[in-house]
Amino acid sequence: MMKTTIDENLKECMEACLRCLKECNFCYNACLQEQDIDMMRECIRLDRECAEICALAASAISRNSPFMKEICLLCAQICEACGQECAKHEHHEHCKRCAEICFQCAEACKKMAS
Amino acid sequence: MMKTTIDENLKECMEACLRCLKECNFCYNACLQEQDIDMMRECIRLDRECAEICALAASAISRNSPFMKEICLLCAQICEACGQECAKHEHHEHCKRCAEICFQCAEACKKMAS
Amino acid sequence: MMKTTIDENLKECMEACLRCLKECNFCYNACLQEQDIDMMRECIRLDRECAEICALAASAISRNSPFMKEICLLCAQICEACGQECAKHEHHEHCKRCAEICFQCAEACKKMAS
Amino acid sequence: MMKTTIDENLKECMEACLRCLKECNFCYNACLQEQDIDMMRECIRLDRECAEICALAASAISRNSPFMKEICLLCAQICEACGQECAKHEHHEHCKRCAEICFQCAEACKKMAS
Q1: Which residues of A touch D33 (CB under 8 A)?
Q2: Looking at the complex, does the CB of residue B41 fall below 8 Å from at least one CB of chain D?
Q3: What domain range includes position C23?
Q4: What is the pLDDT of residues D46-74, one digit of tens each?
Q5: Binding partners of B (≥3 Cβ pairs within 8 A)
Q6: Cα(A8)–Cα(A29) distance, rounded to whole angstroms?
């Protein structure tokens, strides 16, 4: 039968990925402007990595990709790494918020793939 | 001064792009399953084109890209082409809805870039 | 120590991914124009899936992503699925060639990640 | 008539984009590891911008996108901006090489679109 709706579980995961994509790119931009950029190298790098896999994951879900689960499992892993890096810089409001969103996205991805 | 917020105009455009990305991918998947796929060739093609530029545009805004306006102007053009193609297939609910979202996104992109 | 070169193994894998990205997109375009498009639905879909993960994989290697191995393992899996689908349509020259390139890319990705 | 080959002009442009994608990501990674990262902020940012539009442009050509010319014109503009930024840091070998490749890609894109 033709699949014409996206179930709630998938939708929740897709929205979590889009939120995380935005937050990681926002944090990336802010990190690039921080005075202590020397400390932010890994955060800049991981924000980009995370934004890219979140974009792929959200797009994969919305196009009903046969690999959406595998992509989301990888996404969860990268979100966790990014969240852990951001959590080291919680004195920056953008990193603190990004860490939270990353961990939420990791949870949503793992829940979806299970 | 460091830019730490996204203004309303940009945010609206970014959200329109994300909505359009989802709708185009949804329409792409539905078109690939339609019985009359022979008629949907251009729709499948343009849905993908549109989803990809919308992803780039939303990401560009969220990372404060110096080229966000140029990217959104191109996005508006592709959204209009996709919307016009989808509008030819309004008997398919997914195409009808996709056309509407594409035209809205084109407007949001043009408004943002002006 | 700062890493300023890409080793041969990685470079080979990156080039295989770029070749596969091109071939999958080429096959996608050709499939969209085939008379028997009804038979090519899964090929169109998988060509796009494969092109997107190959783009991510090649980009990940070139930017020294900490997740390049994980991304390439997923890439190998999607390349194999795409190659198997293309192999069903070997009477189309583009599918035949795409299947070969997909399998080569899968091998290169697995070798790199091991 | 079905288009089954990519003409030389397009192929040259596609290869220039892929070369530029690799070089920009390579420069991005190297910049993120430079001691004087404080000076490299714009280079990191533009390397990413350029890599992303080059990826889109190469993919657009390979899938015979109806918007390949418009995408390549935008790509040329971003390549030039990235090349100009990289040219300011020619004491870094990776920036020097990246500037050259960016300018070559800008030329190829403009030639293709004309």
Answers
A1: 41
A2: no
A3: 8-113
A4: 999 999 999 999 999 999 999 999 999 99
A5: A, C, D
A6: 32
